[in-house]
Write a structure and sequence with these properties.
Elements: H1 13-50, H2 55-75, H3 77-80, H4 91-115, H5 123-154, H6 162-175, H7 197-203, H8 206-213, E1 223-226, H9 232-235, E2 244-250, H10 257-267, E3 273-278, H11 281-291, H12 296-311, H13 316-326, H14 335-344, E4 347-355, E5 358-365, E6 380-386, E7 392-398, H15 409-415, H16 432-439, H17 447-453, E8 457-459, H18 466-469, H19 474-480, E9 486-488, H20 491-494, H21 499-515, H22 517-534
Parallel strand pairs: 1-2, 2-3, 8-9
Antiparallel strand pairs: 3-5, 4-5, 6-7
Helix pairs in contact: 1-2, 1-5, 2-4, 4-5, 7-8, 11-12, 21-22
Length: 540
């Protein structure tokens, strides 16, 4: 073997590249230090500004302790390797060093303040600066994490090898009418569970493979197997060729989730199956709290998984920041939202199973997608309800359920029993904050706008969704639609416990109202007031 080495001014190309890399790395570390100094300084000045005095009074007195504080903060980053960048791959590689470094700094500063009484200045400035600096640092490193993640994802070929090439060619051929509409399915190159068992198990696991096999015939050739996060790969598939579509990628990483599911819907016949998986908020919370030490786990969960992944996407301006940073990867989805999106896109969930921290589901196509152009996603929602004369009215409420949960009434009705008061028992669609808001009627305050608008009157039957309305008897439905629904229902006067008792209570109220409208509403309003004020009747 002959090794040819070319020398240029005494230096090899490798030496030059290594030197360039070292300079680039040094600049990046220097940049981190500079940005960190700016973060700490900005946090410090912010809490100085909050104090009820001028900077001229506070700054000279606090300048020396701030320099010491800054030195401790920066020195604590050395053992944790907080500023190391190129060897970091996972989220924990970015966040854990930040929390360790800042915990070290916090410990040293706390000892100096409490143990030695060294710094005689405001605790609010000290701990406020630390808290704000930690929050801003976590946001900064989250940006770098997503930057690295997007770089890695952009290098991957998001396809299913030769198959999609054949499918796209066949789709174009069919569009040009060169392929007969009655083409035999045997002519299509397809993936089957049996043929690609080892590949599926390698990407998922044996339990997930077995779950799929329960709903798919392994030998049939009408199953499309993909591993994709873009609907382009689904659009390339001819319609009405496959009756099962399986995707091995989490729907959390799909940028336009509903558009993707809608595209899957167009490729399946009625009764066709769509199998996929999701990492729900419930699974994420349990995993984070289990895998990280106390205090750190709740801090990480609150700042990143709750505030950044769940709150940011629901607020107008912050939503733009969230999607600019993440480009839709690693989306936070509750079980209610994931299944609600499926139902809104024309599917019903017929099977589900949690496997290896993922919730796998089998959804069956039952209809075309609803194509809701204004889904209820923010804190204030508009719900379609049956009003007078059967007209659909929009009732405004504060959100107490997870997004898209309104599509799951049929699912919840099939899987949950009704509890006392006609509410669904153990309704997973309701969030923790939502339960508190419902208890004190905070969620119903926006309905005052419907009262002013004239859609509702003060006392009357509760405005119902189409699904709940269809549970009523024909006689009661006809009588209900003759009158406006109300803000305060007869429920709070009679306190019924079952659906039958609720229907009897409403029928009784409507019969009385038709005879004596004003007196009936006054009587029911008084009864509701007594039950709420003295008998602690609460909204479920």
């Amino acid at each position: 073997m002959v090794l040819n080495v070319k020398f240029d001014s005494g230096k090899s190309d490798t030496d030059v590249k290594m030197k360039s890399f070292t300079i680039h790395l040094s600049r990046r570390v220097l940049m981190f230090y500079i940005v960190d100094v700016l973060i700490i300084t900005a946090s410090f000045f912010f809490f100085i500004w909050l104090k009820p005095a001028s900077l001229r009074v506070y700054l000279p007195y606090y300048f020396e302790p701030f320099i010491i504080f800054l030195g401790i903060w920066m020195a604590a980053s050395i053992p944790s390797k907080k500023y190391a960048y190129d060897d970091k791959k996972y989220l924990k590689d970015f966040i854990i060093p930040v929390l360790i470094s800042d915990s070290i700094a916090l410990g040293v500063i706390t000892v100096m303040i409490v143990g030695f009484n060294h710094f005689m200045y405001s605790r609010m400035i000290v701990f406020g600066t630390i808290l704000m600096s930690v929050s801003l640092e976590i946001i900064l490193f989250l940006l770098f994490y997503y930057h690295r993640k997007l770089d890695r994802d952009s290098e991957k070929i998001d396809s299913i090898d030769v198959f999609l090439h054949h499918m796209e060619t066949l789709a174009k051929t069919r569009e040009s009418e060169e392929l007969p509409a009655t083409a035999n399915i045997e002519n299509y190159p397809v993936f089957t569970l049996g043929k690609y068992q080892s590949e599926i198990i390698e990407e998922m696991n044996v339990e997930a493979y077995d779950f799929m096999c329960q709903h798919i015939d392994k030998t049939r050739n009408q199953t499309l197997m993909v591993s994709t996060t873009t609907r382009f790969n689904i659009r390339a598939v001819p319609a009405d060729v496959f009756n099962v579509i399986v995707n091995l990628k989490l729907i959390n990483d799909i940028r336009w989730v509903n558009k993707f599911i809608e595209t899957v819907n167009t490729k399946l016949p009625v009764g066709g199956l769509y199998i996929d998986c999701v990492e729900t908020n419930e699974i994420v919370k349990a995993r984070v709290l289990k895998n990280y030490p106390p205090v750190i786990n709740y801090t990480l969960y609150f700042l990143y998984h709750f505030m950044f992944r769940r709150v940011f996407p629901k607020l107008f301006i912050l939503k733009k920041v969230y999607f600019f940073v993440t480009r839709g990867f690693d989306r936070s989805l509750s079980k209610a939202e994931a299944f609600g999106r499926l139902y809104s896109c024309g599917f019903e969930v017929i099977a589900e199973q949690e496997i290896n921290n993922k919730l796998f589901f089998v959804a069956r196509k039952v209809t075309e997608p609803e194509f809701d152009m204004s889904p209820t996603y923010g804190p204030l929602i508009s719900l379609r309800r049956i009003g007078k004369n059967g007209k659909v009215i929009h009732v405004y409420k504060m959100r107490t359920m997870h997004p898209f949960a309104e599509y799951l009434q049929d699912y919840v009705y099939k899987h949950n029993d009704l509890q006392e008061g006609g509410k669904f028992k153990d309704d997973f669609r309701v969030s923790t904050l939502g339960k508190l808001m419902r208890k004190f009627w905070i969620d119903e305050l926006p309905m005052l706008f419907n009262l002013v608008k004239g859609d509702l009157k003060l006392v009357g039957v509760r405005p119902l969704s189409k699904h709940y309305f269809n549970l009523y008897t024909r006689e009661l439905k006809e009588k209900r639609t003759k009158h406006k629904p109300g803000l305060i229902p007869p429920f709070y006067a009679d306190m019924p416990k079952t659906l039958q008792e609720i229907m009897a209570s409403e029928m009784k109220y409507l019969n009385e109202y038709e005879r004596h409208p004003i007196l009936t509403d006054i009587k029911y309003l008084w009864k509701a007031f007594v039950n709420i004020a003295f008998r602690r009747a609460r909204s479920g």
